[in-house]
Amino acid sequence: MEPIGTFGASRYTIRDLQLFSESNEPGVVAALAGCEVVRVAKGGLVSDPFLARLYIVLSGALAVESDVPVGIHDSTVTMIHPGESVGEQSVLDEAPNLSRITATDDSELLIIEHKLVWQLIEESSVLPRNLLRLLSFRVRAANALLRRRQKLGEFYRQLSLNDPLTGLYNRAWLNEMLTKLVGRARQDGRALSLVMIDLDHFKKFNDTHGHAAGDSALCAAANVIRNALRPTDYAVRYGGEEMMVVLPETTNKIAISVADRLCKRIRETVVFDDMRLPLPHITGSFGIASLEPGLSDDALVEAADAALYRAKEAGRDTISL
Length: 321
Ligand SMILES: Nc1nc2c(ncn2[C@@H]2O[C@H](COP(=O)(O)OP(=O)(O)OP(=O)(O)O)[C@@H](O)[C@H]2O)c(=O)[nH]1
Fold this sequence. Notes:
Helix content is 42%, strand content 21%. It has two domains: 2-155, Jelly Rolls, CATH 2.60.120; 171-320, Reverse transcriptase/Diguanylate cyclase domain (Alpha-Beta Plaits, 2-Layer Sandwich), CATH 3.30.70. The protein has helices at residues 26-33, 88-92, 114-123, 126-160, 171-188, 202-209, 211-228, 252-268, 297-313, and strands at residues 2-6, 36-40, 53-59, 62-65, 77-80, 85-86, 100-103, 107-113, 192-199, 234-239, 242-248, 284-290, 319-320. By secondary structure, it is α+β, with helices and mostly antiparallel strands. Bound molecules: guanosine-5'-triphosphate. Residues 165, 198-204, 206, 211, 214-215, 218, 240-241, 312, 316 line the site of guanosine-5'-triphosphate (GTP).
């Protein structure tokens, strides 16, 4: 930053400064006249890590980067154009400005030290009003950014808990949620059942019709399962061609009828290849387990897995307890 004179001796007037717009108060004009004007070359840093100062852009432009580290997709660079200012907050709370401020063009800046800002706030009727307006705008902008980040965070969280192929919940979701769902059911003394599902002879299906057709079959089965459940049930891709359904408030008897319905609907589903030609029907095997006193969530999953094994042993395309 190269000092090039005072504001009073420069070609700029108070009308060029947004914070002082509509002010022609002689005391303010006189006080600003003695303030320093500096030149900053394009790419130059505007920083006084130990000082609280107000910078007003007279010509050129500044880029202000938040001191808060953010993700690569969420840049918080604010551009400050001629007439606009930066550093109001640091001046008001007398704390150094930790943002990284860079000139994006050859720029001229007016510097107002924090003591003078406070003096002007007391003397001017225009500055406090403009400052409040500006701060209110900044708070709104910061809130909007926070909301956007929250939404983005939620979006990525959802993404990390869903299987990209089928759109069902994934194993990470199950690891997080099953303990909670089982805990809640136990606490409320309510039933909860699991149905473990495995597509039959899926290796052969893949080998015969190709991996892409296998993917279509998995998606078709996932759609059948998703559409056959209540909104309060959960469908999870457990891994590979294995899926699981979590049925809160569902007794063993009702879980059997749900599994029966799923087994029948998967058997009837038509899977198409990439030429839209129908492929041979797929079937699934289903293992059912229900929460019992003293049964941990891990043991519940193991019980459903063991039941699935029995369904395979019984010839597949069937359900088992
Ligand atoms: N297309 C496709 N195939 C998958 C996917 N995940 C797992 N598989 C396949 O699923 C097949 C599972 O084979 P196995 O575990 O031998 O079981 P299976 O052939 O279904 O036989 P049973 O379960 O005994 O009826 C393997 O060939 C895997 O490659 C996937 O995302 N897409």
